[in-house]
Structures are given as structure tokens and as C-alpha cells.
Design a protein that fits this description.
The protein is mainly α. It has one domain: Up-down Bundle (AhpD-like), CATH 1.20.1290.10. It has 8 helices and no strands.
Length: about 140
Amino acid sequence: MSNRKSIYSVDPKAYEGMLVLEKYLNESTLSVTHKELIKIRASQLNGCGYCLDLHCKDALKYGESVQRLLVLPAWRETTLFTREEQVILDMTEAITLLHTGGISDALYAQAEQLFDATYLAQLIMCMVTINAWNRIGVSTHLKAK
């Protein structure tokens, strides 16, 4: 087991940009449900236990159902998610697994039909931000509490 240092404890200033992004997301018009689904799905794909623990707890606190959280990895195989949520989850996977080609033109067009330009920008920024947090958590072996 390695003794990796917390970036925050070593260099708190390094977190300033991330905290600005979080403030932006907290002030955005994104629904709590959309934010938490993005954060949980990206964290599942990235294997970030710290973020999974944190955001599953938050989602439950905000009223998300246990059933939807349990089937989230297989969201395509259920009828539990709205069309908007399905597009958001698809986009989250495309951004998280960027090496597979990112958001296709067809998926982006679907998102444009469902969301206005500002909301779509906020969705993408939420996806980018949680992926950055996941990479911090996984690379430093941040542990769930």
C-alpha cells in the first residue's frame, strides 16, 4: 500500500481552479438529479470509490431512489430513466470514455433537441469537472470515509 499524499494537503492552491468549477456548477441551472447522475456514472466508469460514495450519499439525500442507483450501470436496459436522463448518461459515457470518439454529432443533436444551449454547456462542464475530480481521487488513492 502506497502512502500517496493528498494534493490538497500538499498544495491547497492546486484545488482553487476545481473549486471555482464547483461554484459555477452549484450556481448553474442544472437539476440536482442531473448533476448527481452525471457524477455517479462517470465515477463508476472511472472507478473512483471516493466520489461514488460521496455522490451516492448526496443523491439519496436529494431524493434519488435506491433502485435507480442500483441499476445505473445498466441504464440502457431499464425504463427507469427519462429520455433526457438517457441522453445525459450517454453523453457522460462519451466524455468519460473520450478515447472511444467523444460525443457523436448524432448524440449532440439529440441533446440540442432536449436542452437549450446554456443547459447543454452546463451539462458538459459538469461531466468535465467530475472526470477531473475522479482523476485526482484515483491517482492519489483517495479513500471513501
